[in-house]
């Protein structure tokens, strides 16, 4: 046991910069994923809730549902491979940029989950709120802007931070393609030293510190939002 | 015709359930009409059809001479019909004052200053002036419902629709809400009230409508309905009710 502890100190002493770089890539990849995933997810959510109808079917809603089902119903690793090989075929310039390919895959993946977070957040607003606003004479758009969205954001924001936490953990799968994230650094270090447990413990603690602080942050935001009611 | 609202041949189904079957009635300017009847008789649905929160399947709702069931300017008509809900539906993310000023300002009926002034006047009237900057979660059920009433009044509607305004209240709060409605009615506000408060309906109404199974079974003055009901369904309903 004490040997492991001594080794951890040694590994950290020699490779701390690698772990720090890995953390940087993990956070960058996660931030890109959540930011663009949220924007794309918003569009998907709007499509899914669209009431536009032709011949008794809602084309936008069906397309969005299909998209969400495919994203959520297939493994992330499969999606990573898919985009990793597909994108360079479509855009040759991406051949050398695997980080971008992986980021695109993660964005698409996250957008499926974010779309459901947004839709659920909006639908969780009491139906009576919509009726009250409409009965005062507001149109649908005004009701969304003044009444529904401000209340839905209180449901959506904390869930979005949790999604951020999920994404940080999921980016570890991107190490399959050696994109420089924390998990990639683990592979580098363990390959160089023939040590497995020690670097795993190190990156595990780093992941834990980041996700725990975010979760704490989420609950603080949540409390802040509740207080203004 | 001095009718503010006329309802002609109204039908409404929820799936295979017929909720309204050929309902015909009218509301004159300044009149106070109460709608009573057992649960599931269609009285709330009728009220909600009046401002098109439910879209009728068939029939006409003529408001100020226009058939609003076929009108495209539903939002414009709704601005002239205030509605009060059983579950208050106050806006939890706005202060008491903002709850009142939001609609008139958003719909450009008043400037923010005018709406603020109106809100303070209305809050004073219902005794909630000291709560103006608080959020609704600090209010009791009775206070929330009084707020919901003045929120609707801020739009200066021509008619007020009350959908069981006291049914979700603790018993000790029913009185304060009813007294606000009573004051309003005495000031000449045209009102349609769906209620289970028979004593109140008898006291404030010009006309009482008794509904059962999606139809108007009997209507008349409060004395006619409550003291000398003619229809056996009305008699049976009233005999089961203590008031």
Summarize the structure.
Chain A is mostly helical and 229 residues long. Chain A has helices at residues 2-49, 59-73, 76-90, 98-123, 127-135, 140-170, 182-193, 197-227. The relative contact order of chain A is 0.15.
Written account of the structure:
The complex is a heterodimer of chains A (229) and B (243). Chain A has eight helices and no strands. With 229 residues, chain A is mainly alpha-helical. Helix content of chain A is 82%, strand content 0%. Chain B has 243 residues and is an alpha/beta fold. A six-stranded mixed beta sheet of chain B has the order 6-7-8-3-9-10, with helices on both faces. A four-stranded antiparallel beta sheet of chain B has the order 2-1-4-5, with helices on one face. Chain B is globular and about 50 Å long. The mean pLDDT of chain B is 94. The interface between A and B is medium-sized, with 20 and 28 residues.
Task: Kindly report how far apart the N and C termini of chain B lie.
Answer: 35 Å
Number of strands of chain A: 0
Structural class of chain A comes to: mainly alpha
> Which residue ranges of chain B are poorly predicted, with pLDDT under 50 across at least 5 consecutive positions?
none
Q: DSSP helix count of chain B?
A: 9
Order of helices and strands of chain B: EEEHEEHEHHHEHEHEEHH
Mean pLDDT of chain B: 94
What distinguishing features does this structure have?
heterodimer; A: 229 residues; mainly alpha; 8 helices; B: 243 residues; alpha/beta; six-stranded mixed beta sheet; four-stranded antiparallel beta sheet
Secondary structure: elements and pairs:
The complex is a heterodimer of chains A (about 230) and B (about 240).
Chain A: H1 2-49, H2 59-73, H3 76-90, H4 98-123, H5 127-135, H6 140-170, H7 182-193, H8 197-227
Helix pairs in contact in A: 1-2, 1-4, 1-6, 1-7, 1-8, 2-4, 3-4, 4-6, 5-6, 6-8, 7-8
Chain B: E1 3-14, E2 17-28, E3 32-36, H1 43-50, E4 58-63, E5 66-67, H2 74-78, E6 81-84, H3 96-106, H4 112-125, H5 141-153, E7 159-163, H6 171-186, E8 190-194, H7 198-204, E9 207-212, E10 215-220, H8 222-227, H9 232-239
Parallel strand pairs in B: 3-8, 3-9, 6-7, 7-8
Antiparallel strand pairs in B: 1-2, 1-4, 4-5, 9-10
Helix pairs in contact in B: 3-4, 3-5, 5-6
